[in-house]
Write a structure and sequence with these properties.
This protein has a single domain, classed as Arp2/3 complex 21 kDa subunit ARPC3. 72% of the residues lie in helices and 4% in strands. It has 7 helices and 2 strands; from the N terminus they run αββαααααα. A hairpin with a 2-residue loop joins strand 1 and strand 2. Helix 2 crosses helix 3. The C terminus is likely disordered.
Amino acid sequence: MKKTYTLVYAAMFAAVVAALGLVPPIPVPGSPVPITAQTLGVMLAGGLLGARLGGLSLLVFIGLIISGAPVLSGMRGGIDELVGPSAGYILSWPIAALVIGYLVEKSWANLKFWKVLLFNILGGIIVVYAAGIPVTAFVLDLSLPAAALSAIAYIPGDMVKAIIAAFVVVKMKKRNPVLTTNKKNLAA
């Protein structure tokens, strides 16, 4: 039973992130890395599934990318996406979900909107940018400050996604606590 729940949750959130890829990417002037809705799925995976399953769901998603499935925004997929300018951002997603999930798990008994928002900013923005900016700089042969400056365009959208994800996680905890249910099923 334990493995079944693990696989179902991991596959479900890989599918959620893929579905968010259907939202057309927004090009950023001067950058080949578009604004996408998919980091919302990363934040939700960590917040709703916890560290282990949230991280696993994004590893499944990366496996889909490697297999060539067009699951990235703009119907992109394939190993080339993991060596291009977006690679650092994409490859950081399992770590981001793990960080968010870990922090949510530690605060589960006293979970508040502002805490989840803070966790989303830390894991879903800071961790993602910490990996994405240096890789973009390397791939495009830019200085780190130039790559960081271009990333400023992503902050408003990522803040909106962090707010939405925090709202959803707190509401889901009250109505259908996936993490609590998950812990009970995994203990069986």
